[in-house]
Design a protein that fits this description.
Number of strands: 17
Largest sheet: 5 strands, antiparallel
Low-confidence stretches: 5-27, 32-72
Order of helices and strands: EEEEEEHEEEHEEEHEEEHEE
Number of domains: 2
Shape: globular
Distance between the termini: 19 Å
Length: 306
């Protein structure tokens, strides 16, 4: 989220792991590495760090291992891309005998198929995010559409940490190794980035560039629109990939913008921010859909409740 408090201003961005601007989002929690390109679109456990161990630890919030009578083994590979709003899963690969060679063959076949299909649609840039056997994989989605795979032994703890860094709880998903899902072109992210004047003196406006396939392009367009209109240095206020930006006013003269994956969640997020700051008023203003292309200027002072 981004908020400006007036007459003095305090601008801050809430992201899940780092500041949620394209230039600074390239960081992940300890034990994870960034998946994708510039913009920190996802995090995956570092091999050997312990983050990917789904069979150790005391967290019993999910059932990690599910083997049918010890005779049937299912395997799945997840592939993701920086600019996909969903993930590719090649699963439902069953074996009656599990061995190191079986595992290697399953990894090669599923990984190759999923990567090939993803790269064909996206033109490259796809990576394997996770491989797992006979278990539910739990993953989270952040408020701006980024995915995070937590240490499977610390799911509830990491969900709490993820949720504490945004207005609403992070969304959680359980994916069984027997499940498969291949995507189509409609799964590609479209980005919306908002920018405003940097510092305490502001023009009370938000500049939004939406409908871009590239986060960096959307950010550049929003900042350029802001700096051109004001002849001042501007900064990213908030961004989202395949989601919504919600503008709002609180405490009379203060205003802000937050992001979420659905229109309703965006509204609820803004209300939660108002409540957190003990604001007697919470005026929800314009909402911007990242899938609708355009360059918009939102005036917090003149806009009314919507």
């Amino acid at each position: 989220m981004g908020i400006k408090f007036l007459p003095f201003a305090l601008a801050f961005l809430v992201s899940l792991i780092a500041a949620s601007s394209p230039a600074s989002a390239q960081s992940c929690p300890a034990g994870y590495f960034v998946i994708g390109g510039p913009g920190a679109y996802g995090c995956a456990p570092i091999p050997g760090s312990g983050s990917g161990d789904s069979s150790s630890g005391d967290d019993q919030s999910v059932t990690n291992i599910r083997i049918d009578s010890g005779t049937h083994y299912s395997h799945a590979v997840m592939v993701w891309h920086a600019d996909l709003a969903n993930v590719w899963i090649d699963g439902g690969i069953y074996f009656t005998k599990l061995s190191s060679e079986t595992e290697k063959e399953a990894d090669r076949s599923a990984g190759t198929r999923a990567l090939a299909a993803c790269n064909k649609m996206m033109g490259g840039g796809c990576t394997v995010a996770w491989e797992w056997w006979d278990s539910d994989l739990v993953m989270f989605r952040r408020h701006n559409g980024e995915f995070l795979i937590p240490a499977q032994s610390r799911v509830q703890l990491e969900l709490n940490e993820c949720s504490a860094a945004q207005a609403l709880p992070c969304e959680g998903f359980h994916i069984d190794a027997g499940y498969s899902r291949l995507l189509n072109e409609g799964a590609r992210k479209l980005y919306a980035v908002s920018a405003w004047v940097e510092g305490p003196v502001t023009d009370n406006k938000l500049y939004v560039a939406s409908g871009h396939r590239s986060l960096d392009d959307a950010a550049a367009a929003a900042i350029k629109a802001c700096s051109t209109a004001t002849s001042r240095k501007c900064e990213v206020a908030e961004w989202v990939g395949s989601g919504f930006l919600q503008t709002f006013r609180l405490n009379g003269d203060s205003f802000g913008v937050t992001a979420e994956t659905t229109a309703e969640r965006a509204k609820e997020a803004a209300k939660a921010i108002c409540k957190k700051h003990n604001s007697p008023t919470c005026e929800l203003q314009a909402q911007f859909d990242s899938k609708k292309p355009g360059l918009f200027v939102h005036d917090f002072k003149r806009a009314g409740a919507q």
